[in-house]
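Q: Two folds, back to back.
A: First:
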Amino acid sequence: MSYVHKSLIWMLSGWLIRSKSWLGQGLGRARTAKCTRGSGTLRKYLLSIRPRCLDFSEAVGFALDIARAMDCLHSHGIIHRDLKPENLILTADHKTVKLADFGLAREESVTEMMTAETGTYRWMAPELYSTVTLRNGEKKHYNHKVDVYSFGIVFWELIQNKLPFEGMSNLQAAYAAAFKNLRPSAENLPADLAPIVTSCWKEDPNDRPNFNQIIQMLLKCLSTIPQPEYVPPPTMHPPDNAVLPPESPGTSSLMATTRRGTGEVMNSELGEKPTGFFSCFAGNCY
């Protein structure tokens, strides 16, 4: 069994994936996802347009792509555990974001503990972090809501086009989020988007929405964006004193002989007889 979604990158069409085993076999161990057709990471694109921010609809559209990909993963019991702009690929036309790099992905376990401090500190959920030095591979209890927290941080970046926890190292950011309940500022977020972002990074994982709920909230936001009104092209009227170009030779005579305004000119009036194949249908052959 394989899991396919248009916003997930793990197919060979246009992408090279090196893996030891894959989700269809139970474990997400894709080591590298590399684009070969001119795309780049979301991080690279955001840096290239600074200080400009994405348009409202563009930011929500990208967030929707990510949420749908994550919803697909979670619906099959898979946690990504390293959601960040570096692991999101923007298509060459800059219209779609795809989820990549499943090197830390694994099946979610309800009964077993999973490896702690997995992912990248700046985007890591607070429940993954520990105040004490952990032995390599030490386990903790957590669930798929760690990806929802990371999504909240990524969504904030899409809106603000700034590095979250700016001025802090990755480790300082993780510590501040886990033990000081510090989050990036939500003051300048659009009123429609702020509740979505802040609900995703709540301290208690049970208070965070799932990705299906996030998708519905994002779709509702998109539906509120006013569509541009149709503006008809201006009608050009020549000024009263305009000098019009002379009519082409023959036009006046043809117009004068037109019958009943139909635009047809009778052959007899032109002094010509019909010739050729189509003259048969004018009654000349029968």
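A: Second:
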Amino acid sequence: MATPNVKSEGNAVAWRIHKKGLLPVTMKKETISVPEPKQGEVLVEVHSASINPAVALSMGTRVLGMIPVETSVRYGQGSLATHVSVRVENLAAIPASIDTSLSSEEAAGLPLASTTALQLVRKARAGSKVLVLGGSTSVGLILLQMLKVEGARHIVATASGVKKDTVKTRGADEVIDYREEDVVQTLKRNHSREQFDVILDTVGDFTVFGACAAYLKESGEYANVGASNMKPDGSIWSNLSFLRNLVSLYLPWWLGGVPRKSSWVEFIRGALPEVTDRYLVTRAVTCPIDSRFAFDDAPKAYERLMTGRALGKIIVNIKHPGDPSVSSHL
């Protein structure tokens, strides 16, 4: 969550990276000049930021927003700073009706996860039987809530251990524990007669995709936004494995592909206002928060992310503790 500003005076503080390596080790907190907004951008004072693998705005408006991945990769710009310059289409004004109920932390955690979930929920229809792979991921937990809003008839999700209860609370009717059960065999055994209308994959479970003809309708679709084969070390083998699986999504059945429609869902630009108006104003969708870290502890936030055990978003609070929207959580 952040507040737009129009002035670019003084200094800002930001966590920056100048060399390759694990983020908790290579991150360095630095004092920098406050960014000068370019045409089509606004200067944003950041209150909280979440850790992640076009609207009319006036000065002082509370907004939620994000810096797209391609911007981070191309320009090295991230949101772990006291001030950032963001393109207007990557922001949404927080409606007055939820201005006091939506915390800065929740507003920070929602943009990327909710717009990613929006890509997937568009594949489902009211009355659909849906399989969600990765129900306990941040995207999965938000997706489950969206599916309930859209009237999904029956939702099956994958999760493990203590996370199963949270997944059910967020909307799953049935949970498959992937650590205790063979997911593919369970799906074949329990869902081959009444098959799924759509499979929504938040983690990149290509094993489930490869066998989905047994439990996904011929008219159904497998949609994927996950990349579980990509490892933090960026090794060539993990990259090749990911590329091989990505190619399998588009391989025709007569060349050995899966005989079901499949797609890699792309990022939706300018989708935040839709998420806000359709799901947040009614509070039908809320942000699951795993943990909170102070600004000075940002490397520890990445350490938590790298454990792979987070249940919800990992938040770094940047605004000083005097900010009433974050002080109660520190």
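Q: And?
A: The first strand starts at residue 2 and ends at 5.
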